[in-house]
Amino acid sequence: MIGSEDVVEDVDLLVVGGGKAGKTLAMDTARAGRRVVMVERGMIGGTCINVACIPTKALVTSARLARRVATAESLGLNLGKLEVDLRLLRSHKEGVVSEMVDLNHRQFLDSGMDLVLGEARFVAERTVEIRLNEGGRRVVRGGDVVINTGTVPHVPAVPGLAEAGVLSSETIQQLDRIPERLVVLGGGYVGLEFAQMFAAFGSRVTVLDRNLTLLPQEDPDITEVLAEYLREDGVEMLGGVSVKEVVRETDGVRVFLEDGRSLVADDILAATGRDPVTAGLGLDAAGVRTDERGFIRVDDRLATDAPHTWAVGDVAGSPQFTHVSLDDYRVVKENIAGGTRSTADRLVPWNLFTDPELARVGLTEAQARATGRNVRVARLPVKAIPRSRTLRDTRGVWKAVVDRDTDEILGVALLGPESSEVLTVVQTAMWAGLPFTALRDGLIAHPTMAEGLNALFTAWTD
Ligand SMILES: Cc1cc2nc3c(=O)[nH]c(=O)nc-3n(C[C@H](O)[C@H](O)[C@H](O)COP(=O)(O)OP(=O)(O)OC[C@H]3O[C@@H](n4cnc5c(N)ncnc54)[C@H](O)[C@@H]3O)c2cc1C
Ligand SMILES: NC(=O)c1ccc[n+]([C@@H]2O[C@H](COP(=O)([O-])OP(=O)(O)OC[C@H]3O[C@@H](n4cnc5c(N)ncnc54)[C@H](O)[C@@H]3O)[C@@H](O)[C@H]2O)c1
Protein backbone atom coordinates (compact mmCIF):
# COMPACT_ATOMS: atom_id res chain seq x y z
CA MET A 1 0.00 0.00 0.00
CA ILE A 2 1.10 3.50 -0.67
CA GLY A 3 0.79 5.46 2.58
CA SER A 4 -0.62 9.00 2.55
CA GLU A 5 2.76 10.26 3.79
CA ASP A 6 4.65 8.49 0.95
CA VAL A 7 6.33 10.56 -1.73
CA VAL A 8 6.01 8.67 -5.01
CA GLU A 9 9.03 9.28 -7.23
CA ASP A 10 8.21 9.18 -10.93
CA VAL A 11 10.81 7.93 -13.40
CA ASP A 12 10.70 7.05 -17.09
CA LEU A 13 11.88 3.47 -16.56
CA LEU A 14 11.79 1.29 -13.47
CA VAL A 15 13.73 -1.98 -13.64
CA VAL A 16 12.96 -4.51 -10.91
CA GLY A 17 15.88 -6.93 -10.54
CA GLY A 18 19.21 -6.31 -12.23
CA GLY A 19 19.59 -9.36 -14.47
CA LYS A 20 21.14 -9.40 -17.93
CA ALA A 21 18.20 -7.87 -19.81
CA GLY A 22 17.24 -5.38 -17.12
CA LYS A 23 20.70 -3.98 -16.45
CA THR A 24 21.42 -3.58 -20.16
CA LEU A 25 18.16 -1.74 -20.75
CA ALA A 26 18.64 0.41 -17.65
CA MET A 27 22.12 1.51 -18.80
CA ASP A 28 20.97 2.18 -22.37
CA THR A 29 17.97 4.21 -21.29
CA ALA A 30 19.91 6.20 -18.71
CA ARG A 31 22.66 6.97 -21.25
CA ALA A 32 19.95 8.36 -23.53
CA GLY A 33 19.19 10.91 -20.80
CA ARG A 34 15.99 9.37 -19.38
CA ARG A 35 15.33 8.96 -15.65
CA VAL A 36 15.94 5.33 -14.68
CA VAL A 37 15.75 3.47 -11.37
CA MET A 38 17.07 -0.08 -11.22
CA VAL A 39 16.38 -1.97 -8.00
CA GLU A 40 18.70 -4.83 -7.10
CA ARG A 41 18.50 -6.67 -3.83
CA GLY A 42 22.10 -7.74 -3.61
CA MET A 43 23.89 -9.20 -6.60
CA ILE A 44 25.44 -6.41 -8.64
CA GLY A 45 25.27 -7.72 -12.20
CA GLY A 46 22.78 -10.53 -11.53
CA THR A 47 22.89 -14.31 -11.27
CA CYS A 48 25.10 -15.11 -14.26
CA ILE A 49 28.19 -13.24 -13.22
CA ASN A 50 27.85 -13.81 -9.47
CA VAL A 51 26.78 -17.42 -8.97
CA ALA A 52 26.05 -19.12 -12.30
CA CYS A 53 27.67 -18.99 -15.77
CA ILE A 54 30.82 -17.07 -14.96
CA PRO A 55 32.00 -18.76 -11.75
CA THR A 56 31.05 -22.22 -13.03
CA LYS A 57 32.86 -21.71 -16.33
CA ALA A 58 35.90 -20.44 -14.41
CA LEU A 59 35.81 -23.70 -12.45
CA VAL A 60 35.22 -25.73 -15.63
CA THR A 61 38.48 -24.25 -16.95
CA SER A 62 40.32 -25.58 -13.89
CA ALA A 63 38.65 -29.00 -14.20
CA ARG A 64 39.59 -29.25 -17.88
CA LEU A 65 43.15 -28.35 -17.13
CA ALA A 66 43.23 -30.96 -14.37
CA ARG A 67 42.11 -33.57 -16.88
CA ARG A 68 44.67 -32.38 -19.41
CA VAL A 69 47.46 -32.40 -16.83
CA ALA A 70 46.59 -35.99 -16.03
CA THR A 71 47.39 -36.86 -19.66
CA ALA A 72 50.23 -34.34 -20.10
CA GLU A 73 52.73 -37.08 -20.81
CA SER A 74 51.00 -37.70 -24.14
CA LEU A 75 51.93 -34.09 -24.98
CA GLY A 76 55.54 -34.65 -24.00
CA LEU A 77 55.29 -33.00 -20.58
CA ASN A 78 55.96 -34.45 -17.20
CA LEU A 79 54.10 -32.20 -14.77
CA GLY A 80 54.28 -34.36 -11.68
CA LYS A 81 51.41 -35.19 -9.39
CA LEU A 82 48.26 -33.14 -9.70
CA GLU A 83 47.04 -31.46 -6.53
CA VAL A 84 43.82 -29.47 -6.24
CA ASP A 85 44.26 -26.55 -3.85
CA LEU A 86 40.75 -25.56 -2.92
CA ARG A 87 41.86 -22.22 -1.48
CA LEU A 88 43.53 -21.25 -4.77
CA LEU A 89 40.64 -22.67 -6.77
CA ARG A 90 38.19 -20.45 -4.92
CA SER A 91 40.35 -17.39 -5.22
CA HIS A 92 40.63 -18.02 -8.97
CA LYS A 93 36.84 -18.22 -9.27
CA GLU A 94 36.22 -15.29 -6.93
CA GLY A 95 38.80 -13.20 -8.76
CA VAL A 96 37.00 -13.68 -12.07
CA VAL A 97 33.66 -12.85 -10.45
CA SER A 98 34.83 -9.76 -8.60
CA GLU A 99 36.49 -8.32 -11.73
CA MET A 100 33.19 -8.62 -13.56
CA VAL A 101 31.09 -7.31 -10.67
CA ASP A 102 33.37 -4.26 -10.31
CA LEU A 103 33.19 -3.59 -14.05
CA ASN A 104 29.39 -3.85 -14.00
CA HIS A 105 29.15 -1.55 -10.99
CA ARG A 106 31.29 1.08 -12.67
CA GLN A 107 29.24 0.85 -15.88
CA PHE A 108 25.98 1.21 -13.91
CA LEU A 109 27.21 4.37 -12.21
CA ASP A 110 28.71 5.83 -15.41
CA SER A 111 25.42 5.32 -17.28
CA GLY A 112 23.67 7.77 -14.97
CA MET A 113 21.02 5.34 -13.74
CA ASP A 114 19.86 5.47 -10.14
CA LEU A 115 20.99 2.06 -8.82
CA VAL A 116 18.95 1.34 -5.71
CA LEU A 117 20.09 -1.53 -3.52
CA GLY A 118 17.08 -3.02 -1.81
CA GLU A 119 14.12 -5.37 -2.04
CA ALA A 120 11.35 -4.25 -4.39
CA ARG A 121 7.68 -5.14 -3.94
CA PHE A 122 4.77 -3.89 -6.02
CA VAL A 123 2.20 -1.82 -4.15
CA ALA A 124 0.20 -0.62 -7.17
CA GLU A 125 0.35 -0.72 -10.97
CA ARG A 126 3.86 0.26 -12.15
CA THR A 127 4.77 1.18 -8.57
CA VAL A 128 7.13 -0.49 -6.13
CA GLU A 129 8.02 0.02 -2.53
CA ILE A 130 11.74 -0.53 -1.98
CA ARG A 131 13.08 -1.67 1.40
CA LEU A 132 16.54 -0.19 1.16
CA ASN A 133 19.46 -2.41 2.21
CA GLU A 134 20.93 0.55 4.09
CA GLY A 135 17.63 1.10 5.93
CA GLY A 136 14.57 3.16 5.02
CA ARG A 137 12.23 2.91 2.06
CA ARG A 138 11.39 4.58 -1.23
CA VAL A 139 8.33 4.36 -3.44
CA VAL A 140 9.01 4.57 -7.17
CA ARG A 141 6.64 4.57 -10.16
CA GLY A 142 7.84 3.90 -13.68
CA GLY A 143 6.36 5.15 -16.93
CA ASP A 144 7.42 1.69 -18.06
CA VAL A 145 8.34 -1.12 -15.70
CA VAL A 146 10.52 -4.10 -16.56
CA ILE A 147 10.57 -7.11 -14.23
CA ASN A 148 13.81 -9.12 -14.37
CA THR A 149 13.94 -10.95 -11.04
CA GLY A 150 15.32 -14.25 -12.37
CA THR A 151 15.14 -17.72 -10.87
CA VAL A 152 16.65 -19.55 -7.89
CA PRO A 153 17.60 -23.21 -7.41
CA HIS A 154 14.65 -25.56 -6.93
CA VAL A 155 14.81 -28.00 -4.02
CA PRO A 156 12.64 -31.04 -4.73
CA ALA A 157 10.20 -32.14 -2.04
CA VAL A 158 12.10 -35.31 -1.14
CA PRO A 159 11.67 -36.24 2.54
CA GLY A 160 14.84 -35.47 4.49
CA LEU A 161 16.62 -33.68 1.63
CA ALA A 162 16.55 -30.18 3.10
CA GLU A 163 17.33 -31.46 6.61
CA ALA A 164 20.36 -33.37 5.26
CA GLY A 165 21.94 -30.08 4.19
CA VAL A 166 21.45 -30.47 0.44
CA LEU A 167 23.71 -28.25 -1.65
CA SER A 168 22.57 -26.01 -4.50
CA SER A 169 24.53 -24.74 -7.51
CA GLU A 170 25.34 -21.74 -5.32
CA THR A 171 26.33 -23.35 -2.01
CA ILE A 172 28.44 -26.05 -3.65
CA GLN A 173 30.71 -23.24 -4.83
CA GLN A 174 31.36 -22.32 -1.17
CA LEU A 175 32.53 -25.78 -0.06
CA ASP A 176 35.76 -25.75 1.93
CA ARG A 177 36.60 -29.34 0.94
CA ILE A 178 36.26 -31.60 -2.08
CA PRO A 179 33.69 -34.25 -1.14
CA GLU A 180 35.04 -37.77 -1.47
CA ARG A 181 31.62 -39.01 -2.58
CA LEU A 182 29.15 -36.64 -4.26
CA VAL A 183 25.62 -37.48 -5.34
CA VAL A 184 24.13 -35.14 -7.94
CA LEU A 185 20.37 -35.18 -8.12
CA GLY A 186 19.42 -34.15 -11.67
CA GLY A 187 21.43 -34.78 -14.83
CA GLY A 188 20.62 -31.56 -16.70
CA TYR A 189 22.96 -28.68 -17.48
CA VAL A 190 23.86 -27.81 -13.89
CA GLY A 191 24.15 -31.43 -12.80
CA LEU A 192 26.39 -32.56 -15.65
CA GLU A 193 28.73 -29.57 -15.53
CA PHE A 194 29.27 -29.94 -11.77
CA ALA A 195 29.43 -33.76 -11.91
CA GLN A 196 32.28 -33.84 -14.40
CA MET A 197 34.02 -30.92 -12.66
CA PHE A 198 34.02 -32.59 -9.24
CA ALA A 199 35.11 -35.90 -10.78
CA ALA A 200 38.14 -34.04 -12.19
CA PHE A 201 38.82 -32.60 -8.73
CA GLY A 202 38.86 -36.12 -7.28
CA SER A 203 35.29 -36.81 -6.08
CA ARG A 204 33.50 -40.09 -6.76
CA VAL A 205 30.36 -38.76 -8.42
CA THR A 206 27.00 -40.39 -9.03
CA VAL A 207 24.30 -38.61 -11.02
CA LEU A 208 20.71 -39.63 -10.37
CA ASP A 209 17.98 -38.61 -12.79
CA ARG A 210 14.34 -39.52 -13.14
CA ASN A 211 14.78 -39.66 -16.92
CA LEU A 212 15.85 -43.01 -18.30
CA THR A 213 18.22 -41.42 -20.78
CA LEU A 214 20.56 -38.46 -20.58
CA LEU A 215 19.13 -35.16 -21.93
CA PRO A 216 16.10 -36.83 -23.53
CA GLN A 217 15.33 -33.76 -25.67
CA GLU A 218 18.52 -34.44 -27.66
CA ASP A 219 19.24 -37.13 -30.26
CA PRO A 220 20.34 -40.35 -28.51
CA ASP A 221 23.26 -40.97 -30.89
CA ILE A 222 24.84 -37.81 -29.48
CA THR A 223 23.90 -38.18 -25.81
CA GLU A 224 25.01 -41.83 -25.72
CA VAL A 225 28.50 -40.70 -26.75
CA LEU A 226 28.49 -37.93 -24.14
CA ALA A 227 27.35 -40.41 -21.47
CA GLU A 228 30.21 -42.71 -22.41
CA TYR A 229 32.76 -39.88 -21.95
CA LEU A 230 31.28 -38.92 -18.59
CA ARG A 231 31.62 -42.53 -17.45
CA GLU A 232 35.20 -42.61 -18.72
CA ASP A 233 35.84 -39.54 -16.57
CA GLY A 234 34.54 -41.28 -13.46
CA VAL A 235 30.92 -40.09 -13.36
CA GLU A 236 28.48 -42.88 -12.59
CA MET A 237 25.00 -42.30 -13.97
CA LEU A 238 21.76 -43.87 -12.81
CA GLY A 239 18.75 -43.01 -14.98
CA GLY A 240 15.07 -43.69 -14.43
CA VAL A 241 15.41 -43.49 -10.66
CA SER A 242 13.35 -41.78 -8.06
CA VAL A 243 14.66 -40.73 -4.67
CA LYS A 244 12.40 -41.79 -1.82
CA GLU A 245 14.18 -40.33 1.17
CA VAL A 246 17.46 -38.84 2.31
CA VAL A 247 18.84 -39.44 5.80
CA ARG A 248 21.93 -37.92 7.38
CA GLU A 249 24.02 -40.64 9.01
CA THR A 250 27.27 -40.43 10.95
CA ASP A 251 29.42 -41.21 7.90
CA GLY A 252 27.49 -39.11 5.37
CA VAL A 253 24.15 -38.78 3.68
CA ARG A 254 22.24 -41.93 2.73
CA VAL A 255 20.03 -41.64 -0.36
CA PHE A 256 17.23 -44.19 -0.55
CA LEU A 257 15.80 -44.92 -3.99
CA GLU A 258 12.23 -46.07 -4.65
CA ASP A 259 13.55 -49.31 -6.19
CA GLY A 260 15.05 -50.38 -2.84
CA ARG A 261 18.67 -49.43 -3.53
CA SER A 262 20.54 -46.89 -1.46
CA LEU A 263 23.86 -45.09 -1.68
CA VAL A 264 25.96 -43.02 0.70
CA ALA A 265 27.65 -39.72 -0.10
CA ASP A 266 29.44 -36.97 1.77
CA ASP A 267 27.33 -34.38 -0.01
CA ILE A 268 24.30 -34.20 -2.24
CA LEU A 269 23.77 -31.50 -4.86
CA ALA A 270 20.23 -30.73 -6.05
CA ALA A 271 20.39 -29.73 -9.73
CA THR A 272 16.74 -30.19 -10.54
CA GLY A 273 15.80 -26.95 -12.24
CA ARG A 274 15.05 -23.44 -11.03
CA ASP A 275 12.04 -21.62 -9.54
CA PRO A 276 10.96 -18.13 -10.63
CA VAL A 277 11.40 -15.27 -8.19
CA THR A 278 7.81 -14.04 -8.14
CA ALA A 279 6.38 -15.02 -4.74
CA GLY A 280 6.47 -12.02 -2.45
CA LEU A 281 6.82 -9.58 -5.34
CA GLY A 282 3.28 -8.24 -4.91
CA LEU A 283 2.40 -9.00 -8.53
CA ASP A 284 -1.34 -8.92 -7.78
CA ALA A 285 -1.05 -5.24 -6.84
CA ALA A 286 0.74 -4.65 -10.15
CA GLY A 287 -1.97 -6.44 -12.17
CA VAL A 288 0.66 -8.93 -13.39
CA ARG A 289 -0.36 -12.56 -13.66
CA THR A 290 1.75 -15.71 -13.40
CA ASP A 291 1.34 -19.23 -14.80
CA GLU A 292 0.80 -22.34 -12.68
CA ARG A 293 4.56 -22.61 -12.00
CA GLY A 294 4.88 -18.98 -10.93
CA PHE A 295 6.55 -17.64 -14.10
CA ILE A 296 5.22 -14.27 -15.29
CA ARG A 297 2.74 -14.53 -18.17
CA VAL A 298 3.92 -12.58 -21.18
CA ASP A 299 2.96 -12.38 -24.84
CA ASP A 300 5.46 -12.69 -27.66
CA ARG A 301 6.38 -9.00 -27.19
CA LEU A 302 7.21 -9.74 -23.51
CA ALA A 303 4.27 -7.59 -22.37
CA THR A 304 2.58 -8.75 -19.15
CA ASP A 305 -1.14 -8.47 -18.42
CA ALA A 306 -0.62 -4.97 -16.96
CA PRO A 307 -0.16 -1.88 -19.12
CA HIS A 308 3.41 -0.63 -19.63
CA THR A 309 4.69 -3.56 -17.57
CA TRP A 310 7.11 -6.02 -19.16
CA ALA A 311 8.96 -9.13 -18.02
CA VAL A 312 12.27 -10.46 -19.30
CA GLY A 313 14.75 -13.29 -18.76
CA ASP A 314 14.20 -16.45 -16.73
CA VAL A 315 11.26 -15.04 -14.74
CA ALA A 316 9.31 -14.48 -17.97
CA GLY A 317 9.67 -18.16 -18.87
CA SER A 318 12.28 -17.42 -21.55
CA PRO A 319 14.77 -20.25 -22.20
CA GLN A 320 17.13 -20.04 -19.23
CA PHE A 321 20.28 -18.68 -20.84
CA THR A 322 22.02 -15.36 -20.38
CA HIS A 323 22.15 -14.73 -24.12
CA VAL A 324 18.36 -15.17 -24.29
CA SER A 325 17.91 -12.65 -21.50
CA LEU A 326 20.11 -10.27 -23.51
CA ASP A 327 17.91 -10.82 -26.53
CA ASP A 328 14.83 -10.14 -24.39
CA TYR A 329 16.38 -6.73 -23.74
CA ARG A 330 16.47 -6.06 -27.51
CA VAL A 331 12.82 -7.12 -27.82
CA VAL A 332 11.58 -5.00 -24.93
CA LYS A 333 13.65 -1.98 -25.90
CA GLU A 334 12.00 -1.88 -29.30
CA ASN A 335 8.53 -2.56 -27.93
CA ILE A 336 8.72 0.12 -25.24
CA ALA A 337 9.49 2.51 -28.10
CA GLY A 338 6.25 1.38 -29.79
CA GLY A 339 7.63 -1.47 -31.89
CA THR A 340 6.28 -4.94 -32.50
CA ARG A 341 9.38 -7.09 -32.07
CA SER A 342 8.54 -10.69 -31.22
CA THR A 343 10.30 -13.51 -29.40
CA ALA A 344 8.70 -16.07 -31.72
CA ASP A 345 10.95 -18.06 -34.05
CA ARG A 346 14.22 -17.06 -32.39
CA LEU A 347 17.12 -19.32 -33.25
CA VAL A 348 18.40 -20.10 -29.73
CA PRO A 349 21.86 -21.66 -29.48
CA TRP A 350 23.22 -23.22 -26.32
CA ASN A 351 26.31 -24.97 -25.06
CA LEU A 352 26.71 -27.56 -22.37
CA PHE A 353 30.16 -26.88 -20.94
CA THR A 354 31.15 -30.45 -20.32
CA ASP A 355 34.45 -31.76 -21.67
CA PRO A 356 34.05 -32.08 -24.58
CA GLU A 357 31.43 -29.39 -25.05
CA LEU A 358 28.04 -30.08 -26.55
CA ALA A 359 26.99 -27.17 -28.76
CA ARG A 360 23.50 -27.07 -30.24
CA VAL A 361 21.44 -24.92 -32.52
CA GLY A 362 18.29 -25.56 -34.55
CA LEU A 363 16.41 -28.83 -34.81
CA THR A 364 17.52 -32.27 -33.66
CA GLU A 365 17.11 -35.11 -36.14
CA ALA A 366 13.99 -36.29 -34.30
CA GLN A 367 12.47 -32.80 -34.35
CA ALA A 368 13.34 -32.34 -38.04
CA ARG A 369 11.77 -35.67 -39.00
CA ALA A 370 8.65 -34.79 -37.00
CA THR A 371 8.11 -31.77 -39.27
CA GLY A 372 7.64 -34.15 -42.20
CA ARG A 373 10.55 -32.65 -44.11
CA ASN A 374 12.79 -34.71 -46.36
CA VAL A 375 15.72 -34.91 -43.94
CA ARG A 376 19.34 -35.77 -44.56
CA VAL A 377 21.83 -36.41 -41.76
CA ALA A 378 25.62 -36.04 -41.70
CA ARG A 379 27.86 -37.41 -38.93
CA LEU A 380 31.56 -36.83 -38.51
CA PRO A 381 33.81 -38.21 -35.77
CA VAL A 382 35.86 -35.38 -34.32
CA LYS A 383 39.03 -37.39 -34.74
CA ALA A 384 38.63 -36.85 -38.51
CA ILE A 385 39.42 -33.16 -37.96
CA PRO A 386 43.22 -32.57 -38.02
CA ARG A 387 43.05 -29.89 -35.33
CA SER A 388 41.70 -32.43 -32.82
CA ARG A 389 44.83 -34.51 -33.43
CA THR A 390 47.16 -31.60 -32.71
CA LEU A 391 45.13 -30.84 -29.58
CA ARG A 392 45.32 -34.55 -28.68
CA ASP A 393 41.66 -34.15 -27.88
CA THR A 394 39.81 -36.39 -30.29
CA ARG A 395 36.70 -37.21 -28.28
CA GLY A 396 33.46 -36.24 -29.95
CA VAL A 397 31.13 -36.42 -32.88
CA TRP A 398 29.49 -33.73 -35.01
CA LYS A 399 26.08 -34.09 -36.53
CA ALA A 400 24.17 -31.95 -39.03
CA VAL A 401 20.57 -32.13 -40.12
CA VAL A 402 19.74 -30.72 -43.56
CA ASP A 403 16.65 -30.44 -45.75
CA ARG A 404 17.37 -32.72 -48.70
CA ASP A 405 15.07 -30.78 -51.03
CA THR A 406 16.32 -27.25 -50.30
CA ASP A 407 19.84 -27.78 -48.83
CA GLU A 408 18.77 -25.67 -45.83
CA ILE A 409 20.69 -26.34 -42.61
CA LEU A 410 18.07 -27.32 -40.04
CA GLY A 411 20.33 -27.88 -37.04
CA VAL A 412 23.62 -29.16 -35.69
CA ALA A 413 24.87 -30.93 -32.59
CA LEU A 414 28.60 -30.47 -32.16
CA LEU A 415 30.14 -32.60 -29.42
CA GLY A 416 33.86 -31.94 -29.30
CA PRO A 417 36.60 -29.53 -28.26
CA GLU A 418 35.90 -25.84 -28.95
CA SER A 419 32.44 -26.70 -30.28
CA SER A 420 30.91 -23.66 -28.61
CA GLU A 421 33.04 -21.42 -30.84
CA VAL A 422 32.36 -23.37 -34.03
CA LEU A 423 28.62 -23.29 -33.32
CA THR A 424 28.36 -19.60 -34.11
CA VAL A 425 29.77 -20.21 -37.60
CA VAL A 426 26.89 -22.55 -38.35
CA GLN A 427 24.39 -20.26 -36.67
CA THR A 428 25.57 -17.36 -38.81
CA ALA A 429 25.07 -19.46 -41.94
CA MET A 430 21.57 -20.31 -40.73
CA TRP A 431 20.76 -16.62 -40.08
CA ALA A 432 21.97 -15.76 -43.55
CA GLY A 433 19.91 -18.57 -45.07
CA LEU A 434 23.02 -20.09 -46.63
CA PRO A 435 22.70 -23.63 -47.98
CA PHE A 436 24.95 -26.30 -46.41
CA THR A 437 27.09 -26.19 -49.56
CA ALA A 438 28.45 -22.79 -48.46
CA LEU A 439 30.08 -24.46 -45.44
CA ARG A 440 31.03 -27.57 -47.38
CA ASP A 441 32.82 -25.59 -50.09
CA GLY A 442 33.99 -22.49 -48.19
CA LEU A 443 37.71 -21.78 -47.82
CA ILE A 444 38.33 -22.22 -44.06
CA ALA A 445 41.74 -21.85 -42.37
CA HIS A 446 43.77 -24.93 -41.46
CA PRO A 447 44.22 -26.44 -38.92
CA THR A 448 41.13 -25.25 -37.01
CA MET A 449 38.16 -27.06 -35.57
CA ALA A 450 35.88 -24.92 -37.79
CA GLU A 451 37.60 -26.44 -40.81
CA GLY A 452 35.78 -29.66 -39.86
CA LEU A 453 32.62 -28.06 -41.29
CA ASN A 454 34.01 -28.69 -44.82
CA ALA A 455 34.11 -32.41 -44.02
CA LEU A 456 30.94 -32.57 -41.93
CA PHE A 457 28.76 -31.62 -44.87
CA THR A 458 30.15 -34.46 -46.97
CA ALA A 459 29.72 -37.13 -44.26
CA TRP A 460 26.14 -38.17 -45.11
CA THR A 461 24.75 -41.20 -43.35
CA ASP A 462 22.56 -42.13 -46.35
C1 LIG B 1 25.06 -23.01 -12.32
C2 LIG B 1 24.51 -22.30 -13.52
C3 LIG B 1 25.28 -22.15 -14.64
C4 LIG B 1 24.78 -21.48 -15.76
N1 LIG B 1 25.56 -21.38 -16.87
C5 LIG B 1 25.10 -20.74 -17.95
C6 LIG B 1 25.91 -20.59 -19.10
O1 LIG B 1 27.04 -21.08 -19.15
N2 LIG B 1 25.42 -19.91 -20.16
C7 LIG B 1 24.16 -19.37 -20.14
O2 LIG B 1 23.77 -18.74 -21.12
N3 LIG B 1 23.36 -19.51 -19.06
C8 LIG B 1 23.80 -20.18 -17.97
N4 LIG B 1 23.00 -20.28 -16.86
C9 LIG B 1 21.67 -19.66 -16.88
C10 LIG B 1 21.77 -18.14 -16.58
O3 LIG B 1 22.49 -17.96 -15.38
C11 LIG B 1 20.39 -17.52 -16.46
O4 LIG B 1 19.59 -17.85 -17.56
C12 LIG B 1 20.54 -16.00 -16.38
O5 LIG B 1 21.38 -15.63 -15.32
C13 LIG B 1 19.15 -15.38 -16.19
O6 LIG B 1 19.28 -14.01 -16.03
P1 LIG B 1 18.03 -13.06 -15.83
O7 LIG B 1 18.22 -11.91 -16.71
O8 LIG B 1 16.76 -13.81 -15.94
O9 LIG B 1 18.10 -12.57 -14.31
P2 LIG B 1 19.14 -12.78 -13.13
O10 LIG B 1 20.53 -12.60 -13.59
O11 LIG B 1 18.77 -14.00 -12.41
O12 LIG B 1 18.85 -11.49 -12.24
C14 LIG B 1 17.78 -11.36 -11.40
C15 LIG B 1 18.17 -10.33 -10.35
O13 LIG B 1 17.01 -9.88 -9.68
C16 LIG B 1 17.34 -9.64 -8.34
N5 LIG B 1 16.07 -9.65 -7.59
C17 LIG B 1 15.20 -10.68 -7.46
N6 LIG B 1 14.13 -10.28 -6.75
C18 LIG B 1 14.31 -8.98 -6.44
C19 LIG B 1 13.55 -8.02 -5.72
N7 LIG B 1 12.36 -8.32 -5.16
N8 LIG B 1 14.06 -6.76 -5.59
C20 LIG B 1 15.26 -6.46 -6.13
N9 LIG B 1 16.02 -7.31 -6.81
C21 LIG B 1 15.55 -8.57 -6.97
C22 LIG B 1 18.30 -10.77 -8.00
O14 LIG B 1 19.12 -10.46 -6.90
C23 LIG B 1 19.10 -10.90 -9.29
O15 LIG B 1 20.28 -10.15 -9.27
C24 LIG B 1 23.47 -20.96 -15.74
C25 LIG B 1 22.66 -21.11 -14.59
C26 LIG B 1 23.18 -21.78 -13.50
C27 LIG B 1 22.31 -21.93 -12.28
N1 LIG C 1 25.81 -24.18 -20.08
C1 LIG C 1 24.67 -23.54 -19.89
O1 LIG C 1 24.22 -22.75 -20.72
C2 LIG C 1 23.92 -23.76 -18.63
C3 LIG C 1 24.54 -24.33 -17.52
C4 LIG C 1 23.80 -24.51 -16.37
C5 LIG C 1 22.47 -24.13 -16.33
N2 LIG C 1 21.89 -23.57 -17.42
C6 LIG C 1 20.46 -23.18 -17.40
O2 LIG C 1 19.93 -23.35 -16.10
C7 LIG C 1 18.75 -24.13 -16.18
C8 LIG C 1 18.60 -24.96 -14.94
O3 LIG C 1 19.53 -26.05 -14.95
P1 LIG C 1 19.23 -27.41 -14.21
O4 LIG C 1 20.27 -28.37 -14.59
O5 LIG C 1 18.99 -27.11 -12.77
O6 LIG C 1 17.82 -27.84 -14.80
P2 LIG C 1 17.47 -28.76 -16.05
O7 LIG C 1 16.02 -28.59 -16.24
O8 LIG C 1 18.39 -28.55 -17.17
O9 LIG C 1 17.75 -30.25 -15.53
C9 LIG C 1 17.12 -30.77 -14.40
C10 LIG C 1 17.27 -32.28 -14.41
O10 LIG C 1 16.83 -32.76 -13.14
C11 LIG C 1 16.00 -33.87 -13.32
N3 LIG C 1 15.13 -33.93 -12.16
C12 LIG C 1 14.22 -32.99 -11.76
N4 LIG C 1 13.65 -33.36 -10.60
C13 LIG C 1 14.20 -34.55 -10.25
C14 LIG C 1 14.03 -35.43 -9.16
N5 LIG C 1 13.19 -35.14 -8.15
N6 LIG C 1 14.75 -36.58 -9.14
C15 LIG C 1 15.63 -36.87 -10.15
N7 LIG C 1 15.83 -36.06 -11.19
C16 LIG C 1 15.14 -34.92 -11.25
C17 LIG C 1 15.29 -33.64 -14.64
O11 LIG C 1 14.86 -34.84 -15.20
C18 LIG C 1 16.40 -32.96 -15.47
O12 LIG C 1 17.18 -33.90 -16.17
C19 LIG C 1 18.92 -24.97 -17.44
O13 LIG C 1 17.68 -25.32 -17.97
C20 LIG C 1 19.69 -24.07 -18.35
O14 LIG C 1 18.80 -23.32 -19.13
C21 LIG C 1 22.59 -23.39 -18.56
From TrEMBL:
Disulfide linkage: 48-53
Organism per entry: Streptomyces griseoviridis
Family membership noted in the UniProt record: Belongs to the class-I pyridine nucleotide-disulfide oxidoreductase family.
Residues annotated for NAD(+) binding in this entry: 186-193, 273
Protein name per the record: Pyridine nucleotide-disulfide oxidoreductase
All copies of domain Pyridine nucleotide-disulphide oxidoreductase dimerisation, residue ranges: 348-453
Domain FAD/NAD(P)-binding span(s) in chain numbering: 12-326
Enzyme active site: 446
Cofactor note: Binds 1 FAD per subunit.
Annotated keywords: FAD, Flavoprotein, NAD, Nucleotide-binding, Oxidoreductase
Annotated positions binding FAD: 57, 314
Example GO molecular function: NAD(P)H dehydrogenase (quinone) activity
Cofactor(s) needed: FAD
Pfam families: Pyr_redox_2, Pyr_redox_dim
Gene3D superfamilies associated with the record: 3.30.390.30, FAD/NAD(P)-binding domain (3.50.50.60)
